Amino acid sequence: KMSSKKKQRNGFFYFMLDMREELRRQGRNVPMDQMSALAGPRWRHLSDAEKAAYNLRAKHEKRTGNYQISSEARVGRMDCMGELLSERRDIAAEREERRRRQKEILKDCLPKTKA
């Protein structure tokens, strides 16, 4: 039987989130289940002060119950085609806007006729 309680998020978890976002900015989309293998060696080489910042973040979020992912991490979300959601374009709206501008340009270029 599965427990409904969420796993506690520690400093390493938040380090992985930040590292994953950094990789996304570089164009590498690494699934979360593979992040621990990539982040583990880097985490071990961090100084105690650097680790403390992530551990403090985990403690703060545990205390406040605020387990939200940072807005930077949300910006990096991708759709099923691998495109960033933040960069998604509404092609139909762009096409309609282009047609509207072309129509206005044509109205301005054509001589006005009296009816």
Notes on the protein architecture:
This protein is an all-alpha fold and 115 residues long. The chain is 61% helix and 0% strand. It contains 5 helices and no strands. The chain has helices at 11-25, 32-45, 48-64, 71-75, 91-109. The protein starts with 10 loop residues before the first helix and ends in a 6-residue tail after the last helix. The mean pLDDT is 78.
Short overview:
This protein is mainly alpha-helical and 115 residues long. It is built from five helices and no strands.
Task: Produce the secondary structure layout.
Layout: H1 11-25, H2 32-45, H3 48-64, H4 71-75, H5 91-109
> What is the percent of helical residues?
55-70%
Average pLDDT metric: 78
Overall geometry comes to elongated
Q: What fraction of the residues are assigned to beta strands by DSSP?
A: under 5%
What is the succession of H and E elements? HHHHH
Descriptive key words:
115 residues; mainly alpha
